[in-house]
Amino acid sequence: MSRIVPLEIGWNSPRWIGITRAYQAKDLERLRGTARVEHSLARAGSEKLWRLLHREEYVPALSALTVDQALEMARAGLKAIYLSGPQLPAQTRLDGQISPELSLHPGKNDAVRSINDALMRAAKAAHADSDDSTDWMLPIVADAEAGFGGVLNAFERTKSMIEAGAAAVCFEDQLSSARKCGHMGGNVLAPTRKAIHKLIAARLAADILDVPTILIAATCASGAELMCSDCGPEDTDFLTGERSREGFLAVRSGTDAAIARGLAYAPYADMLWCETCEPNLGEARKFAKAIHAEFPGKLLAYNCSPSFHWQSTMNEWEISQLQRQLAAAGYRFQLVTPAGFQAANLTQPEFAGAYAGSGHASQFATA
Hints:
single chain, alpha/beta, TIM Barrel
């Protein structure tokens, strides 16, 4: 009983305002066991990111594909790192093929651990040289969604991410067998209720490890036109009554569908992320307004992906102002999901072409 009361008091702190847990403190204490392990990196990162999200106008982040990219992001002054779902599987799928993500996530927690190890080494080396001008220990926001395995997999993946030192984890509401990056077409939604159960499982994992992990709920309902089943009443308003040839249920996509899911996920997540197929400030504001009407101050994330056809929807001035306008609407975490993959593929062709044409001398050429 002596440990249950502090838990209940902690859950009433400002950090957990608006968060619903589907279990009680006595349940958590029973599941924690007697051996306690302190996860210092994950705790420090989550607390640091939480402060940044409430102190900064917004927190911009790029995705890192390699340890070196993560180090350069810290050196450049960024304040967080995103670890994308599609990028690593595209490089190292379990079937040995190099192709887009198909719900196969080999060793994502290993990537989190490797980046944290490199950042710590850099921080120690700099401190040894009396140079503490760079903040090397950037919080890592990791896509934890594997797309398969249900609530048990969500629980175990969250645990492994925390043990590796992740500050925040993200779960999407897509069907496993058809999962792909959320801003792409052809998404198949999982039922809202199933997505909520994953969020509950992820929160339970973080609570058992006693880390205030930032839990991000992403929805692809804005562009998805299919759903695998209708196991709950939350989705009935968006069913069309039709089925695809694969047996999936047809649903009405759009901002209203995304809002409905966002409102359903909000009590269980610290941050909401509405994936879109194109940059649309009007839709972003509509989503934010609807969420904040019921959940004031709820943190929001926005994907500023280069996959969008930016110049077909916005002029140069509108693009330059977008991030601040998004921040004003409540989008405090703004990320570029394929940044690491994009950077690697932008620089390598130029370097390889120069080396093929000029040989060794190309390494010393100046722009």
